[in-house]
Amino acid sequence: MKKIILWLIVVVSALLLLGAGIVGANYFSTSLKSQSGQGKNVENTGETITVLNWNIGYAGLGHDSDFITDGGKNLYPPSKQSVETNLKGIQNLIAAHPANIHLFQEVSEPDMLTLGVDVLDGLRSVLPNQDWYFTNDISTRFIPQKNAMHHGLAIFSGIKTLPTKTIRLPLEPTRLNGILKRQYHIQYQELTDRRGKNWVIINIHLSAFDEDGNIRIKQFEELLVIADQFYQEGKYVVIGGDWNMQLTPTDFPTTTKEKYLFWLKVLPKEKLKPGWQLLFDAEVPTVRTNERPYNKGENYTTIIDGFLFLPM
């Protein structure tokens, strides 16, 4: 009997130590866990450079989804089939709108938010000729796939560039589930066009649910410092991504209650230097509230995704 009790104590202690180790590994992790691959047919820079920017919402935020952080009821997409259908739609749109460089946000490997669907692989399969680089802003360690999170930024390039690099941005003081710290950062590529002009293309995804938008502003200010450093070196700078701040006033039809707009913050344009240009289509919203599944004219929509261009 004593041997059995001792054995149970050893097993329980080992399990507790293992659990504590896993929690600690995730709590203290600051890794961006980068991955990259080469395209089959990367070309020289042509007469023009086209850039497509898209927060694809890990293919899990289609019209039939709501999301708990936005005031909805669900953390997960409706089904794995829903994620696969969304991913197919994303692939079709990418194929229909060719671009030299693609800036993607909220790209996921198989995890709990995609219900096991490999969204990153879906992008690779529709862009086989382009070099790619992926970095996690959220990545769990030693967690089974059904409870894991692995998503972040991806940049695909069909033209020759210098290797993609990253720069970290200010972090939120809070942690997801009290454990995970989201590792905010930018990705950037440098290239030279046919005229011999140097360019820097930057991929961003700023904070969304920080209190009063304070971290977003700090990230924005740091981003402008980084961009200005490249600008002072005589380089054209293009920043594309999800700013999580309203780029322009909008008045699209909506029945969404004010309480679900708690996350909304206006981008402080006064911080931009003269000549720096925000680029977006004022007639096309880029985000909708997720307090309920999407119905046009009901969910609040506005513009938070676009480009900042620093011309020489």
Describe the structure in brief.
By secondary structure, the protein is of the alpha+beta class. It has helices at residues 2-27, 80-96, 119-126, 214-232, and strands spanning 35-37, 51-55, 101-108, 131-139, 150-157, 165-168, 185-192, 198-205, 236-242, 277-279, 287-288, 301-302, 305-310.
Provide structural commentary.
With 312 residues, the protein is an alpha+beta fold. It has 2 domains: 1-30; 32-310, Deoxyribonuclease I, Chain A, CATH 3.60.10. Helices cover 22% and strands 23% of the residues. The protein contains 4 helices and 13 strands. It has helices at 2-27, 80-96, 119-126, 214-232; strands spanning 35-37, 51-55, 101-108, 131-139, 150-157, 165-168, 185-192, 198-205, 236-242, 277-279, 287-288, 301-302, 305-310. It has a 6-stranded mixed beta sheet, with helices on one face. Helix 2 (80-96) runs parallel beside helix 3 (119-126). It is globular, with a radius of gyration of 21 Å. It starts with a helix and ends with a strand. 36% of the residues are buried.
Query: What gap, in angstroms, lies between the N and C termini?
Result: 81 Å
Q: Within the largest sheet, what's the order of strands?
A: 6-7-8-9-13-10
The beta-strand count equals: 13
CATH topology of the largest domain: Deoxyribonuclease I, Chain A
Please supply descriptive tags for the structure shown above.
312 residues, alpha+beta, 6-stranded mixed beta sheet, 4 helices, 13 strands, globular
